[in-house]
Amino acid sequence: MGAKAQELFADGRMLCAPAVLTALNRGLGGGLDQSLINNLCAGLVEGLGGAGCLCGAVSGACLGLGLFLGAGKDGGRSSRRVAAAGKELHDAFKAQRGSTCCRVLTKKVKHEKMAHFEQCAELSGLAAELACQSILAQRPELAQAADLDYLRRGVKKKTSLARLITAISA
Questions:
Q1: Which domain holds residue 96?
Q2: Which of 133, 167, 120 is nearest to 7 (CA)?
Q3: Which single residue of 18, 87, 145, 160 could bond 41 by disulfide (Cβ 3.0 to 4.6 Å)?
């Protein structure tokens, strides 16, 4: 999953938030239309619309958690489940990268366009991977319906593909 989000960002098709949500949506069969994803994510990229706050990849991952773990019309307990999963994702991302703040994450690469781009692609992959793990831990039946053809298409690194298959089958 992470490899697909990273690839969507790296090939210039999408920025962080829509790359993560698109990979999760299409990979796990969420059913959202791409234009809706683009609209939902428009204000989340570059740390909430360029403000440099919450990393857009983390924001997109949290939208994915809501899509697959959310309560729908019922609300209640499922909303708390999504909130708990969002906190776990935040904490895991922060533990691995030291921050969830876009400004902090990009500080060292801010003036190096290629390094900045590569780092954001990698962060998109990490956020999608963490969200996928959380979703599949709570909804393992989604692994059986995953669109592996979509997730494999365009993924260039064998190690990324291996991680992808491991995450989907776990």
A1: 2-169
A2: 120
A3: 18
How many beta carbons lie within 10 A of that of residue 21, not counting itself? 34
**Cα–Cα nearest to 32, from 1, 4, 57, 66:** 66
Whole-prediction pTM: 0.88
With tokens 């959202």, the residue in question is 32
Burial (Cβ within 10 Å: 0-12, 13-18, ≥19) of residue 68: buried
- Residues with pLDDT less than 50, the chain: 158-166, 168-170
Per the structure, the count of domains in the chain is 1
Instruction: Please list the residues that pair with 101 across neighbouring strands.
Output: 54
Instruction: Determine whether 51 is exposed, middle or buried from the number of CB atoms within 10 Å of its CB (0-12, 13-18, 19+).
Output: exposed
Give the Cα separation of 36 and 20 in Å (integer): 14
